[in-house]
Design a protein that fits this description.
Largest sheet of chain B: 12 strands, mixed
Radius of gyration of chain A: 18 Å
Distance between the termini of chain A: 37 Å
Largest interface: A-B, 19 and 15 residues
CATH superfamily of the largest domain in chain B: P-loop containing nucleotide triphosphate hydrolases
Distance between the termini of chain B: 38 Å
Oligomer: heterodimer
Helix content of chain B: 25-40%
Structural class of chain A: alpha+beta
Largest sheet of chain A: 6 strands, antiparallel, barrel
Strand order of the largest sheet of chain A: 1-2-5-4-3-7
Helix content of chain A: 25-40%
CATH class of the largest domain in chain B: Alpha Beta
Number of helices of chain A: 8
Chain lengths: ~220, ~525
């Protein structure tokens, strides 16, 4: 399977978020208590922004929310060059340069927002970070519904030091989570009310988020 | 409606002085909250009863008011409602009841603290109202329903008549209907007799509603307990009223004290009032006739100069006396003193309504009311004092109803008139007043402060409101409630006879059905049936 196809496939699977299938999307290559970085097995096959991902080790699952994704050269000193001047399509470009897949890597960063242990979900940081080389999975619908019963994770996002604007990340997360909810509207309203309470003194930020999640 | 349905919000701040602030739940519409409504607060250890005194809108961030969000978007509106934008209530707690058995038996007590943070606030239910105001029984009279509630609001009438009371309100707000109903209540439930100085002939036989419909009054409902006296026989006859007695007043019944009360209405000067007393000393009982008959002669001049009365003062006095003399019910001689006749009726336990007929002039009203009341006062005092010393029964408690009370009880004359004395101290002698007025600010402050229970319909003059509420705790909060009463059929009652202030809608009066509850006649059901037939 070439890279282009692989990336399309993961997006399709991700969009069909209601499926119960667990999709493995990468492997942790950098781990900290508050976030981890996972490398994708295929080039450009990232999980979407705001998606709920998890690592699974022994009896603990650590949940993260994707907040950043990058593709760069394996060797930090060698930057990719534009190669498609004479190619008729991107597909032919990949076919003409099979080394691309070997010289580049795609990776994503996830903010740790909680964990599950002994069948209980906790909406705060786990005692230990995700072990290095843990596999990273895209959470199936059941996990998403279970995790989104509490909105405490929104406070974790608001207090985090991610480089992305917090409003964008929260909006993206809620939009994604709402897809799997039985009553999407009620879910978004409850989330909005939670945010309105949390951001009671900062209406501008609240408004930015609400504008981005309204249906 | 289940208990949970009644929940409105939680207490977020408070002060025992200014009441508590309640934040409304997101699903409680601020528009359903009405000033004057009655609520309960479930504290940790005790329950509180209070009244909504103000409804406010709040925001968590000032930016919401400065740059309002796009409210056309239902999503944003729904999210913000109850979170960033919310309703708050000011509630004045008045009574509290503890959780332990002793407190439950003791009943509601005045409040001395505030409910703790985040106590749940609910709309009061019928049983709460019953707990506070009691059920209709042989002492409690149903006067109406608390605003927006179906429950019967009852007041203890024997308790009410122990002190002087006031009914206030702008013209046309239903004072007369309220008074009539209260009088009926007294007739039904309390062991007192009433003397009503009925300036506009509204209480005796029949009154008229705003729409011009005739409604039954006391005599029709309690034929055996009420006597109608009249000053104007012809007028009463024309109205088809069967009167029990025609009141005539002899010249010799008028005393100098009566004149001093009329100083303002007759435009008498201070020296002229002083001259009355001199005339009385000079001529004795016949002073009235003799003074009016003094001709403009040398002898008179001499007499006046000997009494040190200036001629213009005398003229001023004579003009005043002549004005009284022109009143048709004032006669040279009367067979029986109206006062004695009235007292006789009262002693028999009959309630007396004195109709003024066409003499709605304030001079006549003040003169007659004052004249009768003063004599009754002295009799009651004598009787009570005798009873105290063990020589006889104390007199039946008497309630005197006066209209246009500010003419009797204003600051200048309240000290001097008998009504001022009654309002201040006659409680001891079993006489109290029921004062009806539309300008309470005209009534002397001291008298207002002595009134036990006040019922007030809408008032919109600042001074009137201040005067009615003077000395009441939580005055500014009650003022807000008072100012928001609707112009008709709503009133606020507070004071001695009620455990806490409450805004209410007076009981219906005037329909055939309503008379059933008022009348005491044995065949009242038949009567009501007949009334209904008459109506059709």
């Amino acid at each position: 399977m070439d890279n282009y196809q692989a990336s399309n496939e993961i997006i399709l699977k991700e969009c069909a978020v209601n499926t119960e299938e667990i999709v493995r999307i990468g492997e942790v290559i950098e781990s900290a208590t508050s976030h981890f970085t996972a490398q994708c097995y295929e080039l450009d096959s990232f999980p979407p922004l705001g998606a709920l991902v998890k690592t699974q080790n022994s009896n603990r699952q650590i949940y993260g929310i994707v907040f950043n994704a990058t593709t760069e050269g394996i060797d930090p000193g060698r930057k990719p060059l534009a190669r498609g001047k004479d190619a008729s399509s991107e597909k032919t470009l990949y076919e003409a340069n099979p080394q691309i897949a070997k010289l580049l890597k795609s990776q994503f960063e996830a903010l740790v927002v909680g964990y599950k242990e002994d069948d209980r979900v906790f909406h705060y940081l786990p005692p230990q970070p995700a072990p290095i080389h843990s596999f990273a999975y895209l959470c199936p619908a059941q996990d998403v519904t279970e995790f989104s019963r509490s909105f405490e994770f929104l406070n974790t996002i608001l207090n985090s030091s991610v480089s992305l604007p917090h409003e964008e990340l929260i909006a993206a997360t809620l939009r994604r989570m709402s897809i799997v909810q039985e009553d999407k509207h009620a879910f978004l309203i409850t989330a909005g009310k939670h945010l309105a309470t949390t951001l009671s003194g900062d209406f501008k930020r609240l408004r930015t988020i609400l504008e981005r999640i309204r249906e | 409606m289940s208990i949970e349905d009644n929940r409105m919000g939680i207490v977020v701040s408070g002060s025992s002085n200014k009441g508590v602030e309640v934040r409304l739940d997101a699903n409680t519409s601020v528009e359903d909250m009405v000033v004057g409504r009655y609520v309960t607060i479930e504290g940790q250890k005790r329950r509180f009863f209070g009244m909504i005194t103000e409804v406010l809108l709040g925001v968590t961030d000032l930016n919401l008011t400065q740059t309002p969000p796009d409210t056309k978007d239902p999503f944003i509106a729904e999210v913000l409602s109850g979170t960033s934008t919310f309703g708050t209530l000011q509630i004045m707690p008045y009574l509290t009841i503890g959780g332990d058995i002793e407190s439950v038996v003791e009943g509601p007590q005045p409040v001395k603290t505030v409910p703790s943070h985040y106590s749940t606030v609910k709309l009061a239910e019928d049983r709460d109202i019953e707990l506070v105001f009691g059920k209709e029984d042989k002492e409690r009279f149903w006067i109406g329903n608390p605003l927006d509630m179906e429950t019967k609001l009852c007041i203890n009438l024997p308790e009410l008549v122990k002190r002087s009371n006031g009914i206030f309100g702008k013209s046309g707000t239903g004072k007369t209907f309220l008074t009539r109903m209260l009088l009926i209540g007294m007739l039904q439930k309390s062991a007192c007799v009433n003397l009503v100085f009925d300036m506009h002939s509204e209480y005796g036989w029949a009154g008229t509603s705003e729409k011009g419909r005739s409604v039954k009054a006391l005599k029709q409902l309690f034929p055996s307990k009420v006597a109608v006296f009249t000053l104007d026989e012809e007028n009463s006859r024309n109205r088809g009223v069967s009167t029990d007695y025609v009141v005539k007043i002899g010249y010799n019944e008028i005393e100098p004290e009566d004149m001093s009360l009329l100083r303002q209405t007759l435009n008498l000067t201070d020296p002229a009032v002083e001259a009355v007393y001199q005339m009385r000393r000079k001529f004795g009982n016949e002073w009235f006739v003799k003074t009016t008959e003094l001709a403009d002669s040398e002898d008179t001049k001499e007499l006046l100069s000997s009494m040190n009365i200036h001629e213009s003062t005398f003229q001023n006095l004579q003009r005043g006396l002549n004005a009284i003399k022109r009143l048709p019910f004032i006669q040279k001689h009367t067979e029986k003193k109206a006062v004695n006749h009235t007292i006789e009726y009262l002693n028999r336990g009959m309630n007396v309504v004195l109709e003024f007929g066409r003499y709605t002039d304030i001079t006549a009203y003040i003169l007659v009311a004052n004249l009768l009341t003063r004599r009754i006062y002295s009799q009651y005092r004598d009787k009570t004092e005798k009873a105290m010393s063990g020589a006889g029964e104390p007199p039946v408690p008497l309630v005197i109803t006066i209209e246009e009370a500010h003419k009797f009880l204003n600051h200048d004359i309240a000290e001097k008139t008998i009504f001022g004395t009654i309002a201040r101290e006659m409680r001891k002698y079993n006489v109290t007043l029921l004062v009806i007025d539309q300008r309470p600010s005209g009534i002397d402050e001291e008298i207002m402060s002595q009134m036990g229970t006040k019922i007030t319909c809408l008032l919109d003059n600042e001074r009137d409101m201040d005067s009615v509420l003077s000395g009441v705790s939580g005055k500014s909060e009650l003022k807000a409630v008072l100012a928001k009463l609707s112009a008709k059929q709503q009133a606020l009652i507070f004071g001695h006879a009620v455990p806490m202030p409450v805004a209410f809608q007076p009981r219906e009066y005037g329909s055939a059905e309503s008379y059933k509850g008022f009348s005491d006649t044995v065949n009242d059901t038949e009567q009501a049936q007949k009334d209904i037939e008459d109506l059709w």
